[in-house]
Amino acid sequence: MASMSIPTFREVHGEIGDQLRTQGYLAAVMVDLGPLARIERSFGGATFQGLRQQVDPLLEEMAERFRRDDLLTRDEREGDRFLLFLAGPRRSETPFKSSTLHGLVERVEEYVNPRVSRLTLPYLREKPRVGVGYGVVLWSPLESPERQILRLVDDATASAGMRKQLRDRDQRERLLEIIQNREIWTAFQPIVELESGGVMGWEGLSRGPRGSDVELPLALFGLSGRHGVTEELERACRRQAFVDWRVLARDGRLFINTVPATVRDTSFLGRGVFDYLGPDLSPREVTLEITERSVIDNLNLYREAMHEFTDLGFTFAIDDVGAGYSGLETVATLKPAYLKIDIALVRDVHQKKISQQVVKAILDMGDGLGALVIAEGVETREEADALADIGVRWVQGYLFARPVDPYAGNPELPES
After folding, report:
1. Torsion on CA atoms 222, 228, 231, 237, rounded to nearest 10
2. Poorest-confidence range of 213-222, 236-245, 270-279, 396-405?
3. Nearest Cα to 290, choosing from 309, 329, 264, 262?
4. H or E segment at 299?
């Protein structure tokens, strides 16, 4: 959607050309809102239009805040790109310095990105990163002002791309540091019996470095997925979960999340698994959780590999049951010991007849398999009562307990 209040740079071409001739050069900062386009693809044009009606004034506020005399425009060729043409000093005044532009771009990034992230919070699970770059062109009497301005825009676009590449490289290197240096830790959330409140087990929830942008698993594993190191991260999280479990020192079964690569990880197969568990933890006390979607995508792989783990005493849980599209029957072929109902089915289950029917079907399947059924993400008493009426016995969620930090007691930690 194009902003109606912010002009295109062609509409103010004359004013920009005068700046170029008068100053002897022209500089611009570009803000690329292209990463927000996925909101339009996922939620439709009306939602995206509403978002842009909030974003465009934010850019105008940015221009007013930083450089009151500068000219904010948009690129009509790419409606999601905005250009702030800078009113620089005249030839006889302060000399041009590229370091000034570097600093301005960083300030624009620091101003725009957190504000845009807040606006997109209802739509995107990961924070979008708005692209910011800059360009400079020197005045030439041999070339038309319009062509020089277009070169400036292309320069700013290339700058934003290079800055993104450098940022991605830095992110990947930081992620490798986190994995190699074991800066990961594990919070544990209890699984309790609805009627008595007794604890049956604890799910290990992996976290990134405390206080960092990747502390929550969604951000941590989202970043690892983009940089192709999910298996390395999962291996580190799995190992740390066993270390932190010994620190927690609670009774009950340990549930840990795994990815498809776990079942072919040679360091976790056969006798190698005892290097992870340590001397005091038996495989019979550990349940490996795999998501329904992973099961469906890797059914043959899991069917063949699970025997190596079950022979050692491990049990398996299927996580997020009801979230996939291939049906519960496919999941049942693996004969897991536990079925964990997807949080989307639990949310407001007391108001949703269809969710209640699916939960009943999962309970029936659990009875047929001899598997315990656990409802995840229970947050309200109404949800808990509805699940109890349906026949759910085991639950997990904020209503009963927040995740426990084994190193700091029981603070209120965000749930995965």
Report:
1. -40
2. 270-279
3. 262
4. helix 299-312
Burial code (b: 16+ CB inside 10 Å, e: under 16) for 89-127 equals eeeeeeeeeeeebeebbeebbebbbebbeebbeebbeeb
User: Residue 206: how many CA atoms within 13 Å on its side-chain side?
Assistant: 28
Euclidean distance between CA atoms 288 and 269, whole angstroms = 13
With beta carbons less than 8 A apart as the criterion, state whether 374 and 191 touch.
Answer: yes
- Whether residue 102 contacts residue 108, with contact meaning beta carbons closer than 8 Å, is answered with no
**224 and 105 within one domain:** no
Q: What are phi and psi of 316, to 5 degrees?
A: -120, 145
**Measured between alpha carbons, how far is residue 173 from residues 167, 169, 210, 227, 229 in Å?**
10, 6, 18, 10, 11
Tell me which of 173, 198, 222 is where a domain ends: 173
pTM exceeds cut of 0.85? no
Distance between CA atoms of 321 and 327, rounded to whole angstroms?
9
| Closest C-alpha to 187, from 367, 386, 414 | 414
Closest CA to 234 of 258, 201, 256: 258
Question: b/e per residue, 258-296, with b = 16+ CB within 10 A?
Answer: bbbbbbebeebeeeebeebbeeeeebebbbbbbbbebbe
One DSSP character per residue, 10-68 reads TTTHHHHHHHHHHHSEEEEEEEE-GGGHHHHHHH-HHHHHHHHHHHHHHHHHHHHHH-T
Same domain, 168 and 280: no
Q: Which domain holds residue 274?
A: 183-395
Least confident of 162-166, 397-401, 407-411: 407-411
Cα separation values, 333 from 310, 324, 369, Å: 15, 15, 9
303: three-class secondary structure by DSSP: helix
